Amino acid sequence: MTMAQRDEADRMVSQQPTGSGADRPGRHGKHNRASRREGRQARRTGKHGTPEITAEMRANARANPDSWLYVIDEAFDPNGPVPSWAVVGAYPVNGAGDVVADFHPNDRYRPSPKALGFPEPANDLEHLLQLVRTEHRPASDLPKVVLDATLFVYAMSPVQRTVIGFHNTDGRVMVPAYTRKSLVPREWPHARAVLGRDIVDLLGGHPVAINPHDLITAVVPAEHLLKAVADERR
Q1: How far is CA 123 from the centre of its chain?
Q2: Which ranges are annotated Basic and acidic residues under compositional bias (predicted)?
Q3: Which of 90, 91, 159, 200 sees the fewest Cβ atoms within 10 Å?
Q4: Ordered domains of the chain (ranges, CATH)
Q5: Please, what's the b/e burial string for 111-147 (b: 16 or more CB within 10 A of its CB; e: otherwise)?
Q6: For 132-172, how does the pLDDT look when each residue is reduced to its tens digit (9 = 90+)?
Q7: What are the DSSP E strand ranges found in the chain?
């Protein structure tokens, strides 16, 4: 199963901070656990693209000298469990409790859809597509969700019950399907709503291209959908 995105999405990811700071806090000082609660106040960025140091963060640092002030991705609750890849980075706090303006980005950080400014998903499949795109969920989770999703597929007439595929730029035949009607190309004569599981046997072995003209797309092979159906019957 593969994911495909437009160049704009790739550029968005490439603009995220990178560096070698992921391991530095753990090696050089104690963790400022209280500072994790300031993650939401640290979402905004300063002049150089680093998280802004707020007054509340400075107050927290004064209460936790010789520590690290961690910045958490805004999609995560700083008071709950936070995986290492959801940490944007950290500021060192010196012995006087002052935040040192030397931000250490986490090179293992995976920006969330929210941090990247992705649009609000309209349904479960769109939500999962975004999580797979940002590597917060594996692509192997897609087939099961596709089965229960409402998809809009190409139709020559409102009564058509077959599916139609088109050649991709590399010559492969794919069946386009959209997660909402507003995404359907205007030049289509009709688009009928179907449940994902209802077209699995009609694909003829061809993959489904989900939202092929949107910011985030997925190509799901027919055999993966067939396996998901078979797994349900066990």
Answers
A1: 14
A2: 1-11
A3: 159
A4: 48-109 (no CATH), 114-231 (3.40.1350.90)
A5: bbbebbebeebeeebbbbbbbbbbebbebeebbbbbb
A6: 999 999 999 999 999 999 999 999 998 898 999 999 888 99
A7: 2-5, 30-31, 67-72, 87-93, 104-105, 150-155, 166-167, 173-178, 190-195, 208-210, 216-220
114 in Cβ contact with 88 (< 8 Å): no
The residues, ordered by sequence, that sit 6+ positions from 77 with a Cβ below 8 Å of its Cβ are: none
Report CA-CA distances (Å) from 7 to 175, 199, 219: 22, 30, 16
User: Would you state the structure tokens that stand for residue 223, as one six-digit string?
Assistant: 């055999």
Q: Is residue 133 within 8 Å of 115, Cβ to Cβ?
A: no
Q: Give 117's contacts (C-beta < 8 A, 6+ positions apart).
A: 12
**What are the C-alpha distances in Å from 106 to residues 20, 71, 113?**
6, 10, 17
Query: CB–CB of 145/125 below 8 Å?
Result: yes
- What's the length of the chain? 234
Q: What is the mean pLDDT of residues 87-96?
A: 95
